[in-house]
Every structure is written in structure tokens, then in C-alpha cells.
Design a protein that fits this description.
single chain, transmembrane, Immunoglobulin-like, 14 strands, membrane, Nuclear Transport Factor 2, Chain: A, alpha+beta, flat, transmembrane helix, DUF4198 domain-containing protein
Amino acid sequence: MERDKWLRELKERADETVCKDVTFTPGMEEAVRKHIRQRSQRQRRGPLLASASAAVTLLALWMWWPDALQPKQPAAPGPAPKTTAPPLFGLVSSPPVLWKTSPQMETVHDGKPFRYVGEKPVRIITDELYEGQMQNVFWLLNGPFAPEVNLVGWSTEGERVDLGSYRVAGPQYDADGHFPSGIVLPHAGIWKLQVVSGGKHFGQVFVEVKEGVSPANRELVTPLITRYLQSIRGDLDWLGGERDVKLDVIGVEAPNAENRRVYAWVQITGRGGDQQQLALSAPMVFDIAYRVSRGGSAGYQVTSHRMPEDGSRYQSSLESMFPPQIVQKLKRYGSAH
């Protein structure tokens, strides 16, 4: 038949051209026959094929892409693409490795000098910041801002700390608005303090948070704890009534103005009833709170103390009482002393 003759010629052409490295199997031959029959039924008036070159192309398509000769099926509808809220503008204005503290400046307004950190539209007036300890920060804003703004802290490691919402008061110094705040940043390092107004980035200032205990907190807690250890009874009664106390403050948590948690290494030397010298050297935790007495006097007081258990439970109780960073500092302190 003419069709069989055409197929033989087609195989010969395939062997000589682009398909020379492919074996023309009986299965391939039958597939081409089937496709020709289908085309013949649709094109009764036309020639068998337009040309031999078109047939070679058809064969190549079938061998490399068998699905290319099959009718396209409509794609099943997939799930709607997920949409995410766009990132807040200004969150990452420069890589954290390039962050530097904002400059400290001094200027005069209405004949009165004042110092601040940062540049317009956001500046702050504050003392040094220490890890985990609340610090009062006075904010100065310039430009159009919402009646209430949000503060967000960003560390160089990408940690985010929400620092609260604040209502903005009127002009102060050369600023269009101002507000006071008390903020706590958990770790030492460079932090970006961002002001968000109306859901949009308004401005930022970069500060350094120092490791250790602020001078103000050290001056507050050291005499309070010393007097407490000189007189407290209970589990320390065995040290006698006369005690010499040496206190090294390792860390302070000050989440607000009313409360402190102090981590310290304590050394106490006392005398028993027979004047025998007794001693204690151990890490301890102290809670301090601002209290108002019934008589109306007010002040900070040590409300409790704890220390790790002895023996085999020492390490586990130490780790349950102290944060990991304090545990590391205590280990270094113990090795040095």
C-alpha cells in the first residue's frame, strides 16, 4: 500500500537525520499509523501529509515528547495564591552589620541647652541603657505624626520587641511633639528603636545597650541587700547575729520602676555561739519591691531570697533559678574566685 511505502521511507529518513540515534520500534510505527488514520478522517480532501519533512518533524516530536501529540486538557483550578501583607516600610533600612549608634548632639533652644541622640524626625533624651533594665527615654518628634505612636525595638539578630503605644503631647524644645517612655531591651548590643505612626514607619534611632548592671541600679540594690543579709534569720540563722557581708551583683532585671530581681554572688562571714567563725559563699536571687507601709513611709525593700540546693541537686536548681546568661556569668565568677 502507498501508506506502507511512505512509512518505510519515513524510517529511512529518520535514520539519516535528527533521529539517527533512535531505534524506530514497532510501537512507534503503530503510533504514527494511528495518528495518520486520525488525520485522514479529519482531512478527507487533503493529501496524506503536506511533505516528508513535516512527517519527520512529527516523528521526532512523538519520540522526545510523547504527550505533545495528545490534546491539551484544561488545567484543574488550583487554590488561590496566598497573599501576604507587605512589610512595614523602614524595618530594614540597612544591613544590621552596618548599624552604628546615632550621634549625640547638643543644641540651644530659647537660650536653654539640651543634649539628645539621633536626628530629626526622631530624637531621644536618655542615659545609658543596660540589658534587662528599664530606662526612661524622652522622645522628640518632628513632622506630621498620628496622635498615638508605637515603639518597636530591633536587634542586630532580628529579634523584635514591642515597646508599647504612647500618646504624643505638644511641642517641646524645637520638636513638634514629645512623649516620655520607659523601655526595657533584653540583650546587650546595637538596637534600632523605631517609631511607627499610623501603621507606617516614621523614624528611628540607633542605641547601644550595655552588658551588666547600671550604676543607678547597683547603687540602689547593694545597700538594701547588704542590710537584709546582716539581719535576716530563717535559713541563714546558723551564721549568727554578727555578719560581714560581701556582695557582687552579677545581673539585675528591672521590668518597671517598682520591682527588681537581683542575681548576686554572696559571701557572708559570721560567728556562732562559741565564737567559731562560719562562712557562706553562694549565688543568690533577691526580689526587691517598692512598698508603702501602714504608717505612710515608702521605699524599696528586699522581699525574698533564694539560693541553689546542696549536693547533687546544685546544678539543676541553679539552672532553674537563674537565666542562662546569668548561669554563664556565675560560672566565670566562680572560676575566677
